[in-house]
Amino acid sequence: MDFGRVITAMVTPFDEQLQVNWDQVEPLINYLIEEQQSDSLVICGTTGEAPTLTDEEKLKLIELSVRYARGRCKIIAGTGSNDTAHTIHFSQKVEKLGVDALLIVAPYYNRPSQEGLYQHFKAVAESVNVSIMLYNVPGRTGVNLDAETTIRLSHISNIVATKDCANTDQLTRILNDAAPGFLVYSGDDSNALPALSVGCHGIISVASHVIGKEMQSMVKYYLEGNIQQAAELHRKLHPVFIGIFRVPSPAPIKHALALKGIQTGGVRLPLVRVSEQEGQFIQSLFV
């Protein structure tokens, strides 16, 4: 399965009471597909504030996303947790909603061994028929899904891709030895072009909420062999790649969306909105 080159990890829109703004889900999806040219959307991932969403909210949000996308892009649903049994139970529910794939994060806080990680992902994969994308984000989980473990998992038939926020050394090791057809995506916006240069398929992005078209152009330049143009565009976009993570995400990207007239509300505690000074900095990235 090809999820495209630029995938947006979608924010969850909230209203003034920080309840999910169901009326804003369809306009947001239309904007990301039509204006920002997202090839796929990750729903209920880190950027979607999954840790503060109830299972009921997640199920409704995923169901609506599949409906509103109408086949125009693929829908990847975040269903992972640090409890294997719950991950299996929830993944089986989400599978029935017609998603294209599940994004399963490495179990956080528990800090399992590499064998524990392998057995976790294997158990989840064997419990569903839908495609699975691994998600390695050591800065948030406290554990690295090593290249060797990812390679081992790539030989399970429905584990078809990984979103990996590690450095290009690890990405390269995965690319060298993973099963044929296994797709590697960088999960770090600022690493998008370097990741492409070692053979990654694309980027799962936060910045693409507001510069998705430009990121698609950068990828296109690279794939067409226009390396200098791709590098120039990467350097131009780099301040945005870095700046939207100056304070905990997704508060900055929600503020950036508001500057573009796309209202997605605030963030749920323990996250907080950007300060006035932080907001001015984010605005300066787009001047």
UniProtKB/TrEMBL annotation:
Coiled coil start-end: none
EC number in record: 4.3.3.7
Protein name: 4-hydroxy-tetrahydrodipicolinate synthase
Name of the gene: dapA
Source species taxonomy: Bacteria, Bacillati, Bacillota, Bacilli, Bacillales
Alphabetical UniProt keywords: Amino-acid biosynthesis, Cytoplasm, Diaminopimelate biosynthesis, Lyase, Lysine biosynthesis, Schiff base
Keyword Cytoplasm on entry: yes
Cellular localization per UniProt: Cytoplasm
Pathway given in the UniProt record: Amino-acid biosynthesis; L-lysine biosynthesis via DAP pathway; (S)-tetrahydrodipicolinate from L-aspartate: step 3/4
Catalyzed reactions: L-aspartate 4-semialdehyde + pyruvate = (2S,4S)-4-hydroxy-2,3,4,5-tetrahydrodipicolinate + H2O + H(+)
Job of this protein: Catalyzes the condensation of (S)-aspartate-beta-semialdehyde [(S)-ASA] and pyruvate to 4-hydroxy-tetrahydrodipicolinate (HTPA).
